Amino acid sequence: MDQFESAMDILKLMKQIKMSLHEIMVKEMEDPSITGPQGMIIGLLIHEGPLRMSDLADKMGLSPSTVSELVDRMEKSGTVCRKKLQADKRVVLVALTDTFQKDSQVKFKKVESAWTDRIQKATVEEREKIKEGLSVLERLLTKGDKHD
Predict the structure, then answer these.
(1) Which of 2, 41, 46, 118 shows a CA-CA span of 20 to 30 A to 59?
(2) What are the residue boundaries of the structural domains of the chain, listed by start?
């Protein structure tokens, strides 16, 4: 197999994985409008409560501007809201709206369970290989042509 075919196989796998993750999200949340990154934000806010934008960006491994765009869209749809911290009004937290939290917490738990159930079918060694392979891919994609 030449380098081009190998690269194309990797791209096809990535596309299939993305589609599978989206199908799980749509099936369990019953809401096709929620994207993977938005689902990550929802999960973080469910597990950790309101977070600063910079904390969301750090936990997701995304730039603050990307997270800000995601939060803007989610705010317009009524999923999240921004709240000023009482102790320091300069600090703005992102939180799930009460309405969204009531309506979707059970559904999001179903998504989480569906994902966890699938991943738990892999052995510990397989899960480590997956994490290692994805870490290598992430490094290659973010470093571009740079060689360490």
Answers:
(1) 118
(2) 3-143
- The conformation of residue 95, written as its DSSP 8-state character, comes to E
31 phi, psi to nearest 5 deg = -145, 95
Number of neighbours of residue 51 by Cβ within 10 angstroms: 18
Residue segments in the chain with a per-residue pLDDT below the cut of 70: 1, 29-32, 144-148
Angle 110-116-118 (CA atoms, 0-180°, nearest 5)? 105
**59 C-beta neighbours (distance < 10 Å), count:** 15
Query: What pLDDT digit, counting tens, does each position of 43-67 carry?
Result: 899 889 999 999 999 999 899 999 9
pLDDT of residue 45: 92
Give the predicted TM-score (pTM) of the model.
0.61
| Adjacent-strand bridge partners of 51 | 94
